[in-house]
Amino acid sequence: MFGQHNLLAALFIIGSLIDFITGLRLVEVRIPNYVIKGSAAQLECLYDLDGEALYSVKWYKDGNEFYRYVPRDMPPAQTFLLPGVKVDLHNSSDAIVTLRDVNLQSAGRFRCEVSGEAPSFQTVTEHGDMVVVSLPDQGPPKISGGRPRYQTGDWVRINCTAGRSKPAVDLSWFVNGEAVEPQKLRKYDSIVSGREGLETSVLGLQFRVEQKHFRNGDMKLKCVASLSTLYWRSNEESVEGDRPQKAPVLESRETVYASNSRADPVQGMSYRELFVTKILSLFIQTNAASKSDSLLLARAPSALLLVALAAVAALAGGGISVPQKSQSKNKDHQEDEKERKKQRKLEKNLNERVSGVELSELLASELLADFEGKSACQSSATRRQHRGLTVTAR
């Protein structure tokens, strides 16, 4: 008899367990982890009655009921006032609750509770947390404290600051696209401000510059601000490295003349050669040879004497070569033009047989002017020596 009672009790317990296992159960509760401030949020509570009748579905925020759905009531859905919770009844049902215009007060722990009808009134519940995000109130993060140029051995000490947000955004540093080692980061507490408690994130970066940090002469420092999958912004600065200064390239001191100039100077030509060439050019003229032979023959001794004196003056000057220092093209051109004008003037005077002007005086004045002009760039001692020789020749 006693054994029969024990058997019946065991069967009852097993049957109750079977009913519990195969009865009402929650399949899934979906609560968004992050919702942007001002947007809508959808809460889902999926259940399986397994043949039982539904009695009610209730939603709680931080332990306070704000939504109830009872199929037998008319209307079946009703809401309860709660700060930060605005239910959109037109888009809500037994399995879905839609919240509109969420704000920072809407964040919290949400719980769904599903109950079956009599006689069991079986109840199942599940919860999840929702965070309302207030995105940064400015653009990309700001980098401060940097310099436009670094060189090996310098210290980089810079900060990255994100705009005010809720919660605080996550900041990270990258150098040339590579994540910075934790020991080079300087972490600071978030700065809380305003009635809503918005937070400002700051992350510092400090390291000593090495040659490997420069790629093609530049170093790129990038700060990234992120918040889950809702927000991602970055700011990058490119700083230069002090490049080694190249040895200065000495400009050629050689003067460059236009190839089409009739007065191209011959480098290395001495004053003696210039004087002889000029005198010969004055004598070798077709018109002068044909029309003034008698005049030249009459005054040949004076001319020959002048040639000899010019040669002696050139030899006394040590055969000084024409300086090869570079002058500007404009100055060279002006000097060449002046020389050509002088030569044309002298030729004209010879061809027209200017009366009252002796050939020796004309040649002497021309050679004197040319000699004094070209010797102006020499030392004062050399100029005095040339000037004395010229006076003697005259």
Automatic annotation (TrEMBL):
The keyword Transmembrane applies. The chain crosses the membrane at residues 303-322. Gene3D superfamilies: Immunoglobulins (2.60.40.10). PROSITE patterns: IG_LIKE. Residues 37-125, 141-240 form the Ig-like domain. Residues 321-349 are annotated as: Disordered. Keywords: Membrane, Transmembrane, Transmembrane helix. It comes from the Eukaryota. Residues 329-349 have a biased composition (Basic and acidic residues). One of its GO terms (biological process) is motor neuron axon guidance. This is Uncharacterized protein beat-IIIc isoform X1.
